[in-house]
Each structure stands twice: as structure tokens, then as C-alpha cells.
Amino acid sequence: MDKESLGAIIASEVEIILNVEKPYLHLLRRPAYPDNPSTRESLEVHIKELMDLGVLRNVVHNEQVEVTTPVIIAWHHGRSRMVKDFRALDTYTIPERYPIHRIHETLTKLSQAKSITAMDALNSFPQNVLTNNAKKLLRIIVPCGMHEYLRMPFGIKNTPSHYQKMLNTIFLEELAEGWLIIYIDNIIVCSETC
């Protein structure tokens, strides 16, 4: 996948609002986690992929940096995954309180349908553009440098709520008609009524 094929949802920029005032250095500037040669290679591959997609950019040496989030590589079934440790940032992020469907309510609606089509939005979170403030708060640090997210990463506190709210706004009429169910980035179309 390349930059052009990722897409960008610009109607709903993602903002992060903190409940603390600047400077954040003692609260939110964290050092890189140590690595080893095998994890470093995987980390560099993941970072290059995200930079090629336009999701990350390098932070240059003369930029003021107050917030850094460390990253680790996790392995699952022989495949690596880049995991950001946003716990410190999430602690000081004001929660976006937006309701997400309860599973039992969704299952009740689905039990009434005669036909169901389920779709999972591909690379849905990184299609959301960040505000300039949010970009500065979403800087990651690794042993080989610092990078800034330009798009919404998975793992920050308000990601599910923001995405649910955005899709509910886009599909407001369809949701009101009752034949569409949205659960974060999963879209379910039902025949008859749901």
C-alpha cells in the first residue's frame, strides 16, 4: 500500500486535550526502551512502512520536543508488531465520552435479520488526520530516533470513541433507518430490520 491508496478523512480531525498544563517534560517525556539487533531490524521496517504511507515523519534535531512515547516490538506467531506505550499520555488525556454499542444489544438486533453482511474498514484509524497539537503529543522515541504521527495511531485513549462518533455522523440516516450497525470500524448491513 502506498501514500495515495491510504486515504484521508479530513472532515473530522483528531484532537487530544490534556488535563495538565505545559511544560510536560517531567510527565510525558519518556526515554526509548532498550532494544537488540533482531527487534531493531523489525522496528526499522515498521517505521519505514509507516513513513512510506505518510503516517509518520522524522522529527528533526532542532524541533522542540516535550512529549515522547517509547515503542517496543512484540512478537505473535512469528510476526512482529510495533507497540506504542501510550500509558503516560492516556493518563493525562481528557476522555471523549461517546457511547459504543454493547455487544448484547447488537446481537439482539442481528438475531432479527434474515441476511447479514459484515465489513471491516481496512487501515481505518490511520486514515484520520491529526490536528497540529495532537501531532506534537504523538511523538514516539526509538533507539534510532524520534518520529511524529501525522495520522491517528491505534492505541491512544480516545481512538475508538472518535472513530465511532465519526462513522455515526457519516451514516446518521442509515443508522436511523435501522438496517445498519456500526461497531467502531466494523460496519454491518442487515436485510429486513436490525
Automatic annotation (TrEMBL):
Species: Austropuccinia psidii MF-1
Superkingdom assignment: Eukaryota
Domain Reverse transcriptase: 80-192
Name assigned to this protein: Reverse transcriptase domain-containing protein
